From TrEMBL:
PROSITE patterns: CRAL_TRIO (PS50191)
Residue ranges of every copy of the CRAL-TRIO domain listed in the record: 85-270
Pfam families hit by this protein: CRAL_TRIO
UniProt GO cellular component terms: cytoplasm
SUPFAM superfamilies per the UniProt record, alphabetical: CRAL/TRIO domain
Acidic residues: bias regions: 311-323
Protein name: SEC14-like protein
Classification via CDD domains: SEC14
Organism of provenance: Seminavis robusta
Length: 338
């Protein structure tokens, strides 16, 4: 019927009474906080964008407080418009080599409290090899596309169907197996730092804990440099598991929900719409610029792939060599958020 079409980008639709009630209950807002949310609703009435919703706003509130939420939200919207981010899900086609070596995904099943589990295999990701073969801008574009998939993907609909509620917080499992001096190259750390800043600025989300597993000896030296990338609040949520990492993970989740790259006896899978393969590994020499020579067979790159393009620095490097490398880094530090 004429005149009955609903503008799903309008504040009236996105901030409807049922949606507000759902968010207030999910976040267990006090009467005072509920009033602050309604004030933000009024202030943002002129922002016609699909991301102008109480769900998104609460992400900013949970990571920076009510005072800065509006400013940070408006900055995010302008960034999306300036960089045409809204079109990524329909227009961007990820390179198969980058996709098969992303090593990040939400898992199909959840932690003990019914919240999502996000797995990232930082040690298996060959950022140095990717930077050698792709422009930095393309890798960053891919990373943004991945975040769009994580924020808008089919896995969210599946989560709400199974749990009967939206996502409030997540458990992060960060795997550092195979971390080496390749990961400590200034270009790699600089890219990692830039990506973290982008995530903090434009994709804030309430992480309730980050469990760091299988950290090799070299991590002690790397941590001296990279800990400055994290705010004190983020550091307070980190749990460093010892060698019996499955026991630590078992405190927070059924370890059977983990994939075999983490738990050899696990049966876990990545969530619907997430990158399926998490093997990672160093990219072989024969794969050229832009991924030429790579055949996406749906299995990613295993850790036992052909000789890599750089085997001169690995976990066996001496403590003196690592300290010399770390001392030689000259990164522009991005101030961490409080």
């Amino acid at each position: 019927m004429p005149g009955t079409d609903v503008d799903k980008t309008s504040p009236e639709y996105l901030w409807s009474e049922p949606k507000m009630k759902e968010v207030i209950e999910l976040w267990e807002l006090t009467p005072s906080d509920t009033q602050k949310l309604f004030i933000l609703k009024a202030k943002l009435k002129n922002v016609h964008h699909l991301w102008n919703s109480p769900d998104v706003i609460m992400g900013f509130v949970s990571t920076g407080g009510w005072e800065t939420a509006e400013q940070r939200f408006r900055k995010m919207i302008q960034w999306r418009l300036d960089n045409k981010v809204d079109a990524l899900l329909t227009e961007f086609k990820p390179n198969p080599l980058i996709l098969d070596n992303s090593c990040v995904a939400f898992l199909k099943n959840y932690d003990h409290q019914g919240d999502p589990i996000y797995l990232e295999r930082g040690g298996a990701l060959d950022v140095k090899g990717l930077l050698k073969r792709f422009p930095r801008e393309e890798l960053m574009r891919h990373a943004i596309w991945l975040r769009e998939v994580q924020c808008n993907g089919a896995w969210l609909d599946e989560y709400e169907r199974r749990q009967g509620r939206g996502v409030r917080s997540i458990t992060v499992v960060y795997d550092l197996k195979d971390l080496s001096t390749r990961h400590l190259h200034p270009n790699v750390l600089g890219f990692f730092q830039e990506l973290m800043q982008l995530t903090d600025d434009y994709y804030p989300g309430p992480i309730k804990r980050m469990i760091i597993i299988r950290a090799p000896h070299i991590f002690r030296f790397a941590w001296k440099t990279i800990k400055g990338f994290f705010s004190e609040e983020s550091q307070s949520k980190m749990i460093f598991a010892d060698s019996d990492y499955l026991a630590e993970l078992g405190k927070w989740m059924d370890v059977d929900v983990l994939p075999q790259c983490i738990n050899p006896d696990g049966h876990g899978e990545t969530a619907i719409g997430m990158p399926k393969y998490m093997q990672g590994g160093q990219i072989p020499d024969h794969i050229g610029e832009g991924g030429v020579g790579y055949h996406a067979v749906g299995s990613g790159l295993s850790e036992a792939s052909s000789p890599a393009d750089d085997s001169s620095t690995d976990e066996s490097a001496s403590e003196e060599e690592v300290e010399q490398l770390m001392a030689g880094l000259h990164l522009t530090q991005v101030p961490a958020k409080a």
